[in-house]
Amino acid sequence: MGALFLVATNGFALLIPWLLKLAVESVQSPGQAGRSPAWYGGAIIVAALLHGIIRIFSRTTLLHNARRIEYRIRQDLYERLLGLDLAYFNAERTGDLISRFANDLTNVRMLVGFGVLNILNTAVIYSAALFLMWRISPLLTLLAIIPFPVMIMVVKRISAAMFRRSRRAQEELARLTSAVEENVSAAAVVKAYCREEAAIGSFATVSRRYMASNMRMAQLRGLMIPVMAATGALGTLIVLVIGGQKVVAGSLTLGDFVAFNGYLAMLIWPTIIMGWILNLIQRGAASMSRLNEVLLAEAGVSEPAEPLTPEKIEGGVELRDLSFSYEASPTPVLSSISLVIPPGSRLGIVGPVGCGKTTLVRLIARLYPVAGGTLLIDGIDVNRLPLRTLRDAIGFVPQESFLFSRSVAENIAFGREGASRGEIESASSLASLEGDVASFPQGYDTMVGERGITLSGGQKQRTAIARALVKDPAILILDDPLSAVDAATEEEILASLSGYYGQRTVIIVSHRLSALRGCDCIVYLEEGRIVEQGGHDGLLALDGRYAALHREQQLRREMEEI
Amino acid sequence: MHFQGIYADEIVGKAYDRRLLWRFAGYLRPYLWLVGVVLCILPLTTAAKLAQPWLIKQAIDNHIVTGDLAGLPAIAAYFLLLILGESLLSFLEVWLLQYMGQRVMQDIRLELFSHVQRLSASFFDRTPSGSLVTRLTSDVEVLGEMFAAGIITVVGDFLLLAGIVGVMLWMNLQLSLVTFTVLPLLFWITFTFRRRMRGAFRQVRARLANLNTFISESISGVAVVQLFNRQRQEMEEFTRLNGSYRDANMPVITWDAALYAAVETLSSVAVGLLIWYGSGEILAGSLTFGALVAFIQYIEKFFAPIRDLSAKYSVMQGAMAALERLFNLLDCNEVLAEGGGERQIPPGPPLSRGEELPFIRFHDVWFAYNNDDYVLKGFGLEIRRGETIALVGESGGGKTTVTRLLSRLYDVSRGGIELDGSDLKTMPLQGLRRRIGIVLQDPYLFTGTVEENICLGDESVRPRVRGAAALVGAERFIEKLPAGYGEEVRERGSNFSVGERQLISFARAVAFDPEILVLDEATASVDSESERLIQEGLKGLMAGRTTLVVAHRLSTIRDADRIVVIHRGEKVEEGSHDELMAWGGVYYRLHQLQFREAGSGPGQSGR
Q1: A420 at interface of B, judged by CB pairs closer than 8 A
Q2: In B, which residues are within 8 Å of A208 by CB distance?
Q3: Residues A370 and A516 in one domain
Q4: Does the structure show a pLDDT above 90 at B246?
Q5: What are the domain boundaries of chain B?
Q6: Quick check: B572 and A490 in contact, CB under 8 A?
Q7: CB-CB under 8 Å, B63 with A200
């Protein structure tokens, strides 16, 4: 459809020089058969108007279409991302993915929009204009387009260099941006250590490099303009000299001469754009393959082929010989963990930093693929449980409490769709968040994050706790949930949570033994293995690492009692 | 290129503001000679552009129509010369303008950045970091655009337009007037369409921003979305945002296409008018063929600048808005007065004779982050040299504020703080801060190596890096890293655990070897193992140093010489552990909580 419009609009565009030719001829030899010159003038105006109107349709059709394609791809990308497991999203990937959403998608859209538009345009204009020029004079046509292939190559090289240098400039800009970001977010550190001068110095370096990369771009931009001007002017020059001689010799009419010039002018822009399009195709293709990488990414965690859906999840968890390691790293994060957590019981997990505590609880929610060993929920292999069923049964408070830039209420209700205001309130009261919310400017409707208030670490943690509680899950997983709240608040939350636990299975990861009070079983993890396991008293009797940890705290108490 | 034009406009304001431009002109002063060169080049390129159709007219009228070929090569040679001249000059023009623009941008960026460094901490509390980043990047960028496609090129465009109009009028008055009848329509169309596009484009920007925020949040929070089974709802919201962004683009495309087509059409209509009217003139002998052809070429040269003029208008509008914001930031003078400032702080009550002069002295300190919302209300404290003071209290009570005031990240609202007998405000800021080592609540790591993060690029500190790391027990994990101290830290230290980040920031404080050490809830999220190591390291560090510790873990402050309990902005209790326990006040209550934490292990308290 767009292509059809494009042919029509170019048809009218091509008609204009031809009418010009006829008009000039009729002026030159008045009285001969044919229309009056003024008639041709009118015809040119009509052709111009039609050309313009159809041009609007051809451009909008094609470019609107490109936007729709972009929309579809973006939908597909996002849908894919939501289905990928956590192992896919490491720190580097996050930035890269965002750039694919922005830059690569733009490249593809440019290709299917402006790219296609200009390719079609060029094809139509070239074939028709060359045909008409050939009819006027084959020799002149050949001579006039001599500079064109050279120009296409020149433009292609310049624009290739421009793409390259503009990417460089973009990278430098990104570096500059993160330098500013870092400096601004760390203003307190910079001030505290009096590093202002050093910061200015290193910023000047980054800024100078950005400037240099821009200057290299500017050179090319400067080069582009004379090249474009020269392309047209050289052709005109050739037509002037050779065509002029032909007119004098009588083998060309003045009308032909004028029309020829008109067609030549029409070819200039498509010729210049051709060099640019060649790069656009390359870039678009490269971007599309980068997008395909995401679109075709295999999810490590997928829905079971033969799902087993239990009526209700009671909350029994069993780990049999469970191991896990990240793709890139050879050392396992977890090795051969076996553990039975009966429904309604409470498990505590302690251990030094990096021992695998967080990985273990994330595996239970199947945020990572469960491949080495078996994980059973109520006796069912977790890999055969529909993801929805599994995650509906789990209330998870992650270590780094991630909140969305939405209202406090929406963040809590994230836990369960359609949670009523009353449910939100009682969940936040359980998490000791109520008092804080009351002090927010718009209470529960206060926006969190960029466009609203910044919550303290403790407030974020408590919001994340409320979000998990509102879900009313069979299994509650708390991954070091109280690291950023003070002792009094911790005490308050632990007290209200113990009333909430009821028949739920609770798994708590903590650095602090206080949070593990009341656990039926405690495991001490070290380097991905359970080194100690048992009740509090049993572990003390074992006189191992747990007992040492406990002794340390005992010691402090005694010292404080002195 | 044409398609980039639609992204140019965003902010609406005046395109010309004398006050702003005048101030901006100051930045051009070092490059005045460049401005001069460009202003000399402009008339030359304009003349070269104007002469080309004129030469063609000469060729047609004097040689081709008359059949006299003798002079044609000469004209062709002139033509070639003009093309070369124009190419060279316009390259120079573009390049010089860009060069100047980039230099000015660099100057402004550095001035802004240096200025921001001097602003006080309260400025950073109030100002979202994103907006500062925008000032230093996008806003400065817009100024660069002004050079690439702004003021000076507009001068060139006007020169060309005026030249074309002049030449056409001179060649044939009536024909020119007939051709110019399309001009009012052209101006009307360009400006109306551009205005529509601007409105539509603002919407595109806003919706794109929403979409991008949503995407980056979804990617960072993907685990939360999956854990709470919210994929469907997030997809729905995404579809809505994505669709509304797509829809916002449609009118922009339509208006852009309409503008593009209208200009093209009007230029052809002008040619049609030329033929319609001009053919009669030729027949009447008052117009030559060459003039007709030259007219057609002039019309072609005429329309492009007019089409772009409105785009340049938008660039200027954007630049003015950006200048306004940049100057506002530069005018923001929220700096702490350097020592020797005029303001004299009333001295605290005189000390009785023979009393040892306190090293640090808080005297009736009042402080509010905003207006009258006082965080500290008449806080007083005296610290002797080498003493370790523990600040204790519930969060939000004002403990952190005390440490911030001591390092003069903020100035007190009322009262005063003295160090070694002189008021903080009378000391050079740098000197003061060098004496104080701070471990902030959130350990902040910069991109760069581990070593850089400890010495912060200070060469005099570099030799102490390893010793400092050893002292706080950070060397244990640093040496295990593949590149050791040369290991690259990713943005915000994302490749280090919270505990490791904290250890690095401890090492940083130690490496700077301060007289006074301030620890702000430093041990809150380190596991017991690391905490033990750190506390051992800190014991060595604290020896010989005056230390102020803020902690909500009472166990970390048991070694303090004195405990100061801050409650609601006031010092409510002060003394040793035993004294305060005996007193049975706020500290006692806090301790009870801590006592239970430490004492009753799991299981003991029963279920």
Answers
A1: no
A2: 106
A3: yes
A4: yes
A5: 14-172+312-335, 173-286, 360-599
A6: no
A7: no
